[in-house]
Amino acid sequence: MEGLLQIIGFLEVIHGALGIVPTGVLLPFMQWGGRTHFVLAIVRKITEVQKLPSVFITFVAWSLAEVIRYPHYALLCIGRCPSWLTYLRYTAFIMLYPVGLVPGEMWLMYEALPFVKKKNLYSDFFAAFPFSYYDFLEVVLVCYPFLCFQLYLHLLKQRQSKLGRHRGKKNA
């Protein structure tokens, strides 16, 4: 079920590509790819990590963000979004994003490394490459902070755009 929901989440990328939402394609694709990799390639495949606190931390951070984001979108579509929800939508990520990322996603990937190596996970797929999934995951862990920082900066710009403009209208 969690795999199906993550795959359906790709609709956000498609909606950006079609211009249904003004988010673009690259950043939603990066977020979708990171989450899908986390859920399907690591958590679902490595039973030894499924009960670790980092899984719980990640899912709580993701869930809280979505519980805010989707009602915001829905109420915005019908023109009934309260300003406090808009503020929460563009502010909660400041705490949720780093919490979900560092003690959540990244820590779990790090904790998964010994199991990935021991099980030689995805060896059939990676046989076509000069590196293993273990090597890939190490590179992902090195690159993750830089890629996620780009997403975080985008969210901060989006916050400034949405809340800065909103405050300007109140003062005018």
UniProtKB/TrEMBL annotation:
It is found in: Endoplasmic reticulum membrane; Membrane. GO terms for biological process: fatty acid elongation; sphingolipid biosynthetic process; very long-chain fatty acid biosynthetic process. InterPro entries: Tyr_Pase-like_PTPLA. The keyword Endoplasmic reticulum applies. The chain crosses the membrane at residues 7-32, 52-70, 90-110, 130-153. One of its GO terms (cellular component) is endoplasmic reticulum membrane. It comes from the Eukaryota. It catalyses: a very-long-chain (3R)-3-hydroxyacyl-CoA = a very-long-chain (2E)-enoyl-CoA + H2O. Pfam families: PTPLA. Keywords: Endoplasmic reticulum, Fatty acid biosynthesis, Fatty acid metabolism, Lipid biosynthesis, Lipid metabolism, Lyase, Membrane, Transmembrane, Transmembrane helix. One of its GO terms (molecular function) is very-long-chain (3R)-3-hydroxyacyl-CoA dehydratase activity. Its main location: endoplasmic reticulum. Its EC number is 4.2.1.134. Pathway: Lipid metabolism; fatty acid biosynthesis. It is a multi-pass membrane protein. Catalyzes the third of the four reactions of the long-chain fatty acids elongation cycle. This endoplasmic reticulum-bound enzymatic process, allows the addition of two carbons to the chain of long- and very long-chain fatty acids/VLCFAs per cycle. This enzyme catalyzes the dehydration of the 3-hydroxyacyl-CoA intermediate into trans-2,3-enoyl-CoA, within each cycle of fatty acid elongation. Thereby, it participates to the production of VLCFAs of different chain lengths that are involved in multiple biological processes as precursors of membrane lipids and lipid mediators. Belongs to the very long-chain fatty acids dehydratase HACD family. This is Very-long-chain (3R)-3-hydroxyacyl-CoA dehydratase. It comes from Rhizophora mucronata (Asiatic mangrove).
